Amino acid sequence: MDAAIATKADAAVLTGAKIIAAIKQSGVKFVLAVPDIVTSKGLLFPIADDKELKLVRVCKEDECVGIAAGLSYGDKRALILIQYTGFLDSLNAIRAVAVEYKQPIVMMVGLLGHEPERQPAESGRYGVRIIEPICDAMGIPHHFLSQDADIAKIKPAIDKAYSESSPVAMLIGRRPS
Amino acid sequence: MMNRDECFEVLKRHVTDEVVVAAYSSALEWNDLNPRVLNFFANGAMGLGSSHALGLALAFPDRRVVVLDGDGSLLMNLGSLVSIAAAAPKNLVHFVCDNECYEANGGHPIPNPKVDFAGLARSAGYAHVHDFSEMRSFEQQVGHVLTQDGPVFATLHIKKSRPLVYKYDDLYKASRRVALKAALQSTS
Lengths: 177, 188
Fold this sequence. Notes:
The complex is a heterodimer.
Chain A: H1 3-11, H2 16-25, E1 28-33, H3 40-49, E2 54-57, H4 61-72, E3 77-83, H5 84-89, H6 91-100, E4 106-110, H7 126-129, H8 131-138, E5 142-145, H9 154-164, E6 168-172
Chain B: H1 4-14, E1 19-22, H2 24-33, E2 39-40, H3 49-59, E3 65-70, H4 71-75, H5 79-87, E4 92-98, E5 101-102, E6 108-109, H6 117-124, E7 128-132, H7 135-147, E8 152-157, H8 168-171, H9 174-187
Parallel strand pairs in B: 1-2, 1-3, 3-4, 4-8, 7-8
Antiparallel strand pairs in B: 5-6
Helix pairs in contact in B: 1-2, 1-7
C-alpha cells in the first residue's frame, strides 16, 4: 500500500452515533443483540443507554430471528446486532423465517477480523470472505458499511425490508467510533 | 403422567383472545382441538417457538401469549429461558410438553429424559414456575397459571401420544400468518 492510499484508509471513519441516528430514522424501536467486539463500543454500549431504543439481550443469535419476526406482527421494527459468527450459526433460522416465510429480518453484522480497506469477499479471513456469497446464495440483499458515506444505505435498506417483508444484511467492516 | 390432548382440552376452556404459539406435535394436536386465527405455528426452525412468542409478547403487551413448546424444541433453545426472563414480559405463559422424546422425529429419547425443565426456568428467572404430572392438579390450577404476571413457566409431564399425521404444509402456510397479523392488528 502506498502512502497516499494508506492515509486515505486511515482517515476513513464509521461513526457509531451516525449509525444509531440512521437506525432511529428508520423507525427501529427494538435492538436484539449478542455482544460483538466490532460493534461493542461504538454501537451496543450507546444503544444500551439510549432511551428511545429497547435493547433485548439474548443468549444466542438465532433467538433474534424469532423475536424480530414476532415483533413484526405488531409492525414493530427491530434491528438484529450480531457478529458474523452468530450470523453463520443462525443460518437455519434465517433460511426458514426470513427467506422461506418472507419475514422482515434486518441484520447488522460485525465482520470480526476484517481489513476495512478491503471488500469482504477479499478478506484474508475465511469466515468473513464467505458471508457475501452465502447471502447471495440465500437471496439476502447485503450492504457493506465501512465509512460514514455508507451510512446513507441504512434507512433505504430497512424501509425496503419492512415494505417487502424480506431480510437484509448490513455488514460492518470497521469498528464504529 | 397426563395425556397431552386431555391437557389441551382443559386449556382450551380457558383460552380466549390469547395468541397461542405451538411447536410441532403440540401444534398439530392443538390445531386439531382448537383451530383459530390466533394460533401461531410458523416457528420455522426447531426451538424458535419461545423466541417468536417473546417477540409477540413485546409487540402486544396488552395481550397474553401462550407457548406450547416441546421438550426437544426447548432443549434446542434453552438460552431463550434466560432471554425471556431478562425481558420479563408479564404477558407470556410458557408451557413445555415433556414426554421425554423427540416425538416428531421418530420418538427417540431426549439426551437426558430426567432433565428438570421447571428447575431450569426457575433458575433462569421466570416469575412463576409450575410442574404438573396429574390432570386433576392441572385442571384446578391452569386458570391461575394463565393469569399470573409473567413470565410464567409450566412443565406438563405427558405420555407419548397417539400417532400423529404431520401435515406441516397446512400448519405453515402463508395465509395463516397473514390472517394472524390482520386479526392482531384489528383487535389491538
